[in-house]
């Protein structure tokens, strides 16, 4: 969404500035296809010439992702905070009970309440590993070494 807004703002500023400076928009509109072909073609050609195929594919994928919008929304952030609150509340009350949730998150009733979070393996691993390391007994250096 912001990608499209950025394109609109860019064109509005460029053409608006040209008109405010006293330029005639008709001249721009008449030469626009040819100017875009020259400037855009030179930019695309230079990009293709100076990059490997893998970089070009990643760039095209990145453009698609930027136009698609963010992966996570405000409701997802709220869900993560609610999940963490529930897990930390259990950790304070009964650390042994917390272990059941962080060792097997896919079967945890708390994680199952947030299916979008549970579907992202990286987020689940980050939460579980962080809580696991926080529950370690740091007085025993061998236990910390085994975890790392």
Automatic annotation (TrEMBL):
<dbReference type="GO" id="GO:0006935">
    <property type="term" value="P:chemotaxis"/>
</dbReference>
<feature type="domain" description="Motility protein A N-terminal">
    <location>
        <begin position="4"/>
        <end position="93"/>
    </location>
</feature>
<protein>
    <submittedName>
        <fullName>Chemotaxis protein MotA</fullName>
    </submittedName>
</protein>
<feature type="transmembrane region" description="Helical">
    <location>
        <begin position="6"/>
        <end position="29"/>
    </location>
</feature>
<dbReference type="Pfam" id="PF20560">
    <property type="entry name" value="MotA_N"/>
</dbReference>
<keyword id="KW-0812">Transmembrane</keyword>
<dbReference type="InterPro" id="IPR046786">
    <property type="entry name" value="MotA_N"/>
</dbReference>
<dbReference type="GO" id="GO:0071978">
    <property type="term" value="P:bacterial-type flagellum-dependent swarming motility"/>
</dbReference>
<dbReference type="GO" id="GO:0005886">
    <property type="term" value="C:plasma membrane"/>
</dbReference>
<dbReference type="InterPro" id="IPR047055">
    <property type="entry name" value="MotA-like"/>
</dbReference>
<keyword id="KW-1133">Transmembrane helix</keyword>
<keyword id="KW-0283">Flagellar rotation</keyword>
<keyword id="KW-0472">Membrane</keyword>
